[in-house]
Amino acid sequence: MDQLTHALLIATLAHDGQKYGEMPYIFHPIRVALALLEAGASETLAIAGLLHDMIEDTDWTVDRIESEFGTYVSFLVEDLTKKDGDSYDDYIEQMPPECRIVKFFDSLDNYTHLDFSDLDPDRKARLKAKYAKTLIRLGDTILAADLRLPSKVGALLTDLMMGAA
Length: 165
What we know:
The chain is an all-alpha fold and 165 residues long. The chain has helices spanning 3-14, 27-39, 43-51, 54-57, 62-69, 71-79, 88-93, 97-113, 121-144, 151-162, and strands spanning 19-20, 23-24.
């Protein structure tokens, strides 16, 4: 079994029973991984996209990820995991470029797919603003990586930068 298929299987089992709004949670990391691949990112970054929430949302550890997927993937997943006590801004700022790419597509999926309907208006506004700020901050990383973005993503980024979204 290739590593990407293995990561999909592991992530599906690890996130079993979790929800993302009304949908099974696994749809989120799958969308992140697919967006990475469609943009031209490496299979390794797509694997990190599939596994990006494993440490904080499942019983998987960095060591276990390393034993299954190697040191580099475990490094990526660990750096994609916000540490207790770190501010969100510091967490984003300290990420290496490869993780910033994965985080961009994670934030993009959160911004476009998260069901905010059951949240109070203040929390909804804070979350939308957080993801929008992250997308704007990480947009330069995507441009520097020479990745292909669908035109609708470019339009969304333009709207965010202009304050229209």
